[in-house]
Fold:
Amino acid sequence: MFYVFLFYMFMFLMFLMFHMFLMFLMFLMFYMFLMFLMFLMFYMFMFFVFMFFMFLFLMFHMFLMFLMFLMF
Structure:
């Protein structure tokens, strides 16, 4: 009888370890998904910053051309 009890305890522990492992995998997937989102947000943000400075650069040179036009 005691061996039956040990067997069931062993099965219960295997069950617990298996589900802890599953939870760990779910946590990893969630964490990787968050990292991926942060990566995307960062690069989208950098893209818009870049576009903004390119716009300023363009405006500045259009202004310079306008000044040159006034000089001639």
